[in-house]
Amino acid sequence: MDTAHEIREFLATRRAKITPQQAGLPAFGNGKRRVPGLRREEVALLAGVSIDYYVRLERGQLAGASEEVLDALSRALQLDDAERAHLYDLAAAQRRRAPRRTARKSRTAVPASLTRVLESMTDAPAFIRNGRLDILAVNPLGRALYAPLFTGSARPVNIARFQFLDPTSRDFFPDWNASVNTTVSLLRTEAGRAPGDTDLTGLIGELVTRSDEFRTAWAKHNVRLHHTGRKAFRHPAIGVITLDFDTMELPAHPGLTLTAYSAEPGTSEDDALRLLASWAASDHGQTHTADPARS
Question: What is the predicted pLDDT for the residue at 106?
Answer without folding.
Answer: 45
